[in-house]
Amino acid sequence: MTERREVRIDQEKGRLDKVLSDQLNDLSRSKIQDLIQTDQVTVNGQAVKANYQVAKGDKVVLTIPPVQEVNLEAEAIPVPIVYQDSDLAVVNKPQNMVVHPSLGHPDHTLVNALLYQLDNLSGINGELRPGIVHRIDKDTSGLLVVAKNDLAHQSLSKQLKDKTVDRHYLALVHGHVPHPKGTIDAPIGRDSKDRKKYAVTENGKEAITHFDLIRYFGQDYSLIQCQLETGRTHQIRVHLAYIGFPLAGDPLYGPKKTLEGPGQYLHAKTLGFDHPRTGQRLSFTSDLPQVFQQTLKELDLKYK
């Protein structure tokens, strides 16, 4: 059962994560940091960062999900491996696959498939997320880099933090995007009205998405390429909905029952980074899934 705790700040001073770990002896500081990072800790009703400086009178609320026991097993699930060496692998995740086990998705994930196909995975992210450096949504297809050891994991994580990883996505959106290119710079956090969703919020984390128009399908749809500068949860989906051009096939942030398909039309097409050991720049490209390609052909015929 999910547990809810309230902490009132009286005389305490300093970082939120440290103050909470001093007061809550049964929760480690790393666990508290995980809760903060996933927006399950609020101060006066707002999600904050771990380095937030507490003040007298602050009301801190922690939402602690139940401990989930997962028996992580290797599963013979076919996932295309685009490239691999002794340090890393680049995989092409299919649509409708969760990246790692979580509440409600204990198995049949990308991690289960990787345990079967790869000889080793880094352990930095814990036993449920071995090798996972970054994620894409369940219904987003495309390229991910996976770390086989801690050296690779640390290097790739730093490149993501330093914004030197190239990540380009193809997105089919509703509407006629009026600009050939643009940048969406709007912070993202949990939606205060629906905890399953994210939204542009004043107190959210920095989120920047660049986009280039590729083509129109009449006035109804546009095909664009998005480049991530940051990597917030649901970032492209939230940003495109925010500017009025939601992803086609996305029932959470866009209109329901539009184009047929297994989920949103979003594909991680290109991925580029420096090799953790050699420093060589690597770049990879993946083809659109068959359902995405077929939909574009049908729209092309419809709007000729």
UniProtKB/TrEMBL annotation:
Keyword entries, A-Z: Isomerase, RNA-binding
Source domain of life: Bacteria
Reactions performed catalytically: a uridine in RNA = a pseudouridine in RNA
EC number: 5.4.99.-
One GO BP annotation of this record: enzyme-directed rRNA pseudouridine synthesis
Molecular function via GO: RNA binding; rRNA pseudouridine synthase activity
Broadest EC class assigned to this enzyme: isomerase
Active site residues according to the UniProt entry: D137
A Pfam family assignment: PseudoU_synth_2
Residue ranges annotated for the RNA-binding S4 domain, each copy included: 14-78
Entry's family note: Belongs to the pseudouridine synthase RluA family.
PANTHER family with a match to the protein in the record: MITOCHONDRIAL RNA PSEUDOURIDINE SYNTHASE, RIBOSOMAL LARGE SUBUNIT PSEUDOURIDINE SYNTHASE D
Stated role: Responsible for synthesis of pseudouridine from uracil.
Protein name (database record): Pseudouridine synthase
Organism: Alloiococcus otitis ATCC 51267
